[in-house]
Amino acid sequence: MSECGVDAGVLTGRLIPLQHALAPGIGPEQIPGVVRPGRARKPNFLPNPDMKSSAFAVLLLGAALPLRAADQIVVTVANDLDLARPAEVIAIPIQDVQRLLPGVMIDHYVVRDAAGAVLPCQVTNFKPEEHHDYYLDLLFQHDFAAGEKSAVFTITASPTPVPPFPSKVFARHIPERFDDFAWENDRLAHRIYGPGLSTGVAGRDKMVSSGIDVWCKRVRYPIVDRWYLKGHYHEDSGEGLDMYNVGTSRGCGGTGIWADGRLAVSANWQTWKVLANGPIRAVFELGYAPWDAGHGVTVSEVKRFTVDAGHNLDQIESTFTIEGANEATVAIGLNKNSADKGQEPRVTATNDEADHALVQWEAQKTNGAIGEAVVVAPADFRGYAEDAANRLILARAMSGQPLRYWAGAGWTKSGDFASEADWQAYVAASARRAASPVRISSIEGR
């Protein structure tokens, strides 16, 4: 267990008053093992040469023995909703963990639930390229049952490194396929087209599009690398398939600028950066070069995706740099008809104003049904629109300020959604969860 310095104001036990125990000219800050409030250092028990005798030194050292660091951290998390919250991500600021368990390396943390079960955990660092300890949060997940208002967890230090947990999320640049960027969790997968696909190198596959594609999964394990390797992911061989045609539409949650009843969209992404990659959360950014939004306004965009295990909707934060205006109306879209030829889709769409959501359900002939949705924060919601290819939900974006929304899909053959009603209920619950995140009600060392 790591040692910690002892505050002069929190020494316990039977002590000789400091004003009587000190040799002339010696203050509390000069006693080995005692530090001023706010300072911490490892105790040093070398005798002070100014002490009158070795017997006095022994007496003084007994008074100044350091207190131990906490053996564990106990965290209580509060939930204000009555509905079930499966796979809820709990984020503990790493500074709180390091304060209560000082000197513990991040790969030695062990998180347990109230029953003592070890939970997969993850530490985030969004500046990994700088090789410094820019740690942000310690993440883990909990399944809140309906009506469960609080949950308690413990964090302890392992004497040896904790082996990696199997990852349920994954994101990477796919240079071998014209610069796709693909990501997934244990529910479904997505991709967005990169610069290579917009050049002549792509041949007949050449496409300019910033829409978001969907890959439907039957399995919980990662499939992105497997499907790119085998190449035949438009046919279901037991793991699922790519049954969604994004084309030049917004796909499932792509953005554009809406003005005068027209949609102005970017080209393929130009930059990428992976910030976190499992086991329970992946975070990455895609950057889009400036494009003409009309009326003398030019817009560029950086999209940050947060992909959590166990969720069908990803959190997306789009930060627009707007030249020629202070704000813009952003349209976030769903492709009106993404089905393959011959699937004879029956498509229904719902403008869910109560939850500030756009919800779509597309029942196909043999591929089952796929639901898609976009949810925006209430303060940013500005209504609905559509064009020839997309149904759109509108939101206000200020230049340089992230616009947060959630987008994703669900498939009947995954086993998660049996009907359109199931999908609508899931989206409504997700919107309520986003509006009322869980809270850390207490965190203490014991």
- Under CATH, the topology of the largest domain can be stated as Beta-galactosidase, Chain A, domain 5
Task: Give the strand line-up of the largest sheet.
Answer: 17-18-19-20-27-24-23-22
CATH class descriptor of the largest domain = Mainly Beta
Shape: globular
What is the CATH architecture descriptor of the largest domain? Distorted Sandwich
- What percentage of amino acids are in beta strands? 35-45%
- The pLDDT mean sits at 87
Number of domains: 3
The assigned structural class equals mainly beta
User: Radius of gyration from the CA trace?
Assistant: 28 Å
Please mark out the parts with pLDDT under 50 across 5 or more consecutive residues, or reply none. 1-67
Q: Main beta sheet: strand number and arrangement?
A: 8 strands, antiparallel
Structure description:
The protein is mostly beta strands and 446 residues long. It has three domains: 11-63, no CATH class; 73-163 and 438-445, Sandwich (Immunoglobulin-like), CATH 2.60.40; 170-415, Beta-galactosidase, Chain A, domain 5, CATH 2.70.98. Helices cover 10% and strands 42% of the residues. It has helices at 18-21, 54-63, 94-100, 224-230, 420-435; strands at residues 6-7, 34-35, 73-78, 85-93, 109-112, 118-119, 121-125, 135-144, 150-157, 170-174, 180-184, 188-192, 212-217, 240-241, 252-259, 262-264, 271-277, 281-294, 297-308, 313-323, 327-335, 346-352, 357-363, 369-376, 381-386, 390-398, 402-411, 439-445. The strands form six sheets. Strands 17-18-19-20-27-24-23-22 form an eight-stranded antiparallel β-sheet, with helices on one face. β15 and β16 (262-264) form a beta hairpin. The longest helix has 16 residues, at 420-435. The two termini are 13 Å apart.
